[in-house]
Amino acid sequence: MSDGPEKTIQASIDFLKQDRPLRAEEICRNYLEKSPGSLDHLRLLGQALLKQGRTSEAEHYLRLALDIEPDFPQLHEDLGSACAMQSKYEEAITAFQRALELQPTLPLVERKLGQVLMAVGRGNEASEAFHDYIDKDPERAEVFRGIELFQKELFDEAITVFRGVLKQNPKNVNALRQLAISNWHGKRRLDDAEALLRQAVALADDFFGGWLTLAALLMELNKFTEAISAYEKATKIEPNSAEAWAGLASANGRAMYPEKAIVAYEKAISLNDSDPQVLGGYAWELKTVGDQQAALHAYRKAISVKPNFGPAYWSMANLKIFKFEEKEITEMLSQIECGDLTDIEDIHFRFALGKAMEDKKEYDKAWSYYDTGNKRQRETVEWEPMEMERRQQTIRSVFDRDTLQQRADVGYEAADPIFIVGLPRSGSTLVEQILASHSQVEGTAELPIIGRITDSIGRYRTDGKRFPEAILELRDKDLRAYGRQYLKEAQRYRSTDKPLFTDKLPNNYPMLGFIKLILPNAKFINTRRHPYDSCLGAYKQLFGRGQNFTYDMLDLAHYYQQYIATMNHWHVVMPDQVLDVHYEETVTRLEWQVRRILSHCGLPFEESCLHYHETERPVKTASSEQVRQPIYQSALGAWRRYEKHLGVWQHQLGGIVEELPEAAKNAGL
Question: Bridge-partner residues for 502, per DSSP?
Fold first, then answer.
């Protein structure tokens, strides 16, 4: 005997609440085959189809239901939602207005109507609809008052309002969300904000705004895998939200799943193809997997949407082996000259023009754009050279020979990781690609794990002692636990069962002593390049985040000096543990260098490492296209083209140059 209407209706509702719309659809369709005029089943089928993003099918069944019962207000609301999701705004307005005529107290229709009116430019009517929506609920009105205070940056007052709402109703998820946002952006209490958002979505599992805000916060906290889960939830609640799909794409990209990121970006773009930021993110992931032509197409699409979108021009320049067309150079020059760019847009155009002029061998013009771009970028970032120097001196004093010898074998014994360190633009991606071409090595990426671990050490001590000093009071089992934690977190970035993997985060170089304590069998490679070429490569690079020392010539020289001091320290206190790999020797004596690298890592020689450019794998750094090319020597001694501009580096770093191998010292002659 088949289930009756009440049972199937309840089952469909339960499956919708569980985010299982396919199962709800199946139940409704089965029932409608026998009773095609069941109003409730038609409505539930429409809702199941809406949850799957099948909006035109949903509209069809909702209209069938309205043919049966034209005065059912909730059906008009559902129809309005289906039309709005298809950008049929006028039909949506009609449906929402009819729903309110039939039942003026429907809780969300005024807001939906206001949003659709705003979308078609009927701002005054939208404002009236929003006010109606707010005025019918004093609690809701108080939340909006708090939002207005937040928007005026009156954060304390806003927080007081939201707390007042929650005191009266602890389950008001909108107040929880807004209090979280105030803690996040106003007070920088990110842990509190996360707890509030998790409370909100626990109370209302289908709270789209809550999941979206939680996901964005998790991204800021570098909790990328958790952000992926939150964005996935948001896309299930609102399958036609381009914002949610774009967020999911970005989270997958940051978590180093470029293929998944591309799929999510394509879904976002199918819903809204006019967001230049989304198109730029899509292009970056295409570049990461090696599809340069598709990446260029996406960047140029972003520019067609927003001609002054400087980041797209710089991203094309950042492909390195790409050259601008003359019309693109003309357009960039025109944008610079127009004078109405934002600071960020202007900076991106200057770095892109630096690359364009360099490709034309107009090096003085190239330097002018790079130099002015750096000077403007330096004004937007924070960097304290003396604080960095003090920290590195402290690290060197803590991790001395005695400390490292006394606790040499107490860490976690696994030999899986190969740490590749150095300065940006010094050949680390090339070394990583060589190793990733070996059958026993998986190339991952620049893993942020060591920094997260060191930041956590001593965080809750009442005496304020943190890393590195707090290391001296850790027990042997604590060091071993940190080594185990590193490997556990690294596993999330791995996709094979190869015995070894690379961690190519250049900024790990001050942490080698700590890494040696927690992972005594790890391998270390320090990639080096002629100081002037290394500094020039960094000065020509507009980094997406971090590396704030690269935007001033003196800051760069000072940082390079501290880097050399720290690496020399590791060579003294950890003899024969760190292999220096000079880029110039790799380029001129590839097989000799490859054998050195493999021997240092305890690996047998494999011919595939000489053909590293044939290895297919995602590469997320600026060198991604360069390491897909056979070995070339055109970049050796590139600093000589700009020699007359490099007096600061020559004065500060000349002594370091004298100690270089001949291949590095004389490169480019």
Answer: 418, 443
Alpha-carbon span 170 to 94, nearest angstrom: 36
233's CB contacts (< 8 A; 6+ apart) are 19, 201, 211
Structure token pair of residue 503 = 């961690």
Interstrand relation of 500-503 and 441-445 (parallel, antiparallel or unpaired): parallel
Average pLDDT, stretch 173-202? 88
Per-residue pLDDT, 622: 43
As a 3-state breakdown, the chain gives helix, strand, coil percent values, each rounded to 5, of 70, 5, 30
Cα 294 to Cα 63, 290, 629: the distances in Å are 41, 9, 18
Question: Can you give the length of the chain in residues?
Answer: 669
451: CB partners within 8 A, 6+ apart: 505, 507, 508, 511
Burial class (CB in 10 A: 0-12, 13-18, 19+), 475: exposed
DSSP codes, 137-199:
-HHHHHHHHHHHHHHTT-HHHHHHHHHHHHHH-TT-HHHHHHHHHIIIIIT--HHHHHHHHHH
Give Cβ neighbours of residue 396 (< 8 Å, ≥ 6 apart).
565, 566, 569
Q: Which of 660, 656, 578 is nearest to 399 (CA)?
A: 578
The CA distance from 642 to 535, in Å, is: 12
Cα of 607 vs its chain's centroid, Å: 35
Distances (CA, A) of 525 to 407, 494, 560: 22, 20, 17
The residues, ordered by sequence, that sit 6+ positions from 669 with a Cβ below 8 Å of its Cβ are 637, 640
Task: Examine the pLDDT at 166 and tell me if it is beyond 70.
Answer: yes
Confidence of residue 132 (pLDDT cuts 50, 70, 90): low
Look at the block and give the residue holding tokens 């939602």. 81
Query: Contact at 8 Å (CB) between 27 and 47?
Result: no
**Band of pLDDT at residue 191, cut at 50, 70 and 90:** confident
Q: Which of 337-346, 419-428, 499-508 has the lowest mean pLDDT?
A: 337-346
User: Which pair of tokens denotes residue 456?
Assistant: 């956590």
Tell if the pTM clears 0.85, that is, is over it. Answer: no
Higher pLDDT, 628 or 297: 297
Q: Which amino acid is it at 293?
A: Q
Strand partners, 523: 418
Q: Cα torsion for 222, 226, 230, 233, to the nearest 10°?
A: 150
Residue 652's closest CA among 542, 549, 562, 540? 562
Give the E-state strand segments of 451-593 in sequence order: 500-503, 523-528, 578-582
pLDDT digits (tens, 9 = 90+) for 375-419: 999 999 999 999 999 999 999 999 999 999 999 989 999 999 999
Coil, strand, or helix at residue 536? Answer: helix
Domains and their CATH numbers in the chain: 38-135 (1.25.40.10), 412-633 (3.40.50.300)
What backbone phi and psi angles, to 5 degrees, belong to 502? -100, 145
Q: How far apart are the first and last CA of the chain?
A: 90
Position 198 scores a pLDDT of: 95
The CA distance from 121 to 591, in Å, is 66
If DSSP codes are grouped into helix, strand and coil, which group holds residue 483? helix
Non-local (6+) Cβ contacts of 142 within 8 A are 161, 164, 165
Report yes or no: 627 and 430 within 8 Å, Cβ to Cβ: yes
26's torsion region: left (phi>0), alpha (psi -120 to 50) or beta? alpha
Give the span between the Cα atoms of 626 and 427, in whole angstroms: 10
**Tokens 């107490």 appear where?**
410
